[in-house]
Design brief:
two-stranded antiparallel ribbon, alpha+beta, Arc Repressor Mutant, subunit A, 12% strand, 4-stranded antiparallel β-sheet, single chain, 2 domains, 7 helices, N-terminal domain of TfIIb, disordered N terminus
Amino acid sequence: MKPSANKKQDCCGQPSTKKDKALVCPMNGQQGQRVSSDTLRHLLKKERVHEINHPAYYFCKTADCDTVYYHPKSGQCFQKADLRVRVGLKETTDPLWLCYCFDISKKMIDKEITARGRSSFSDDIRKEVAAGHCKCKILNPSGRCCLGEVLAAEKEAQSHFEGRPLD
């Protein structure tokens, strides 16, 4: 698929980048994903923003690690408590946010599938992205498109719904 020349659509069309095994979270040793410092500027609490001193950081996606962002060479870390938003994949209680651009939680997907037998959230996101309304780079703590997370949650909820006995 050819990358879009339209900046508005680049968000969810970005190819994934190859990860460097040397760039691991200093708290758990797991490999993170590169994220722009622009993401941190939008999501860190005001009193922590001035501490951003690198052009890029890494996002720790390990659920049981309180570190959200780190810089592997300097050792600088930002924790869950340093952010203005909840990081859905690092939480165990609702709301478990999946889509930060359009405010979609795991519970909302579960409810829609229970009520309608299917979820339309991923279709809605695709339409919004096509209309240029996606801001994942600055709203999603991972700095990446949420569509994969939403699709996975829809698939999981759908499998649970289909496995329920009929009344």
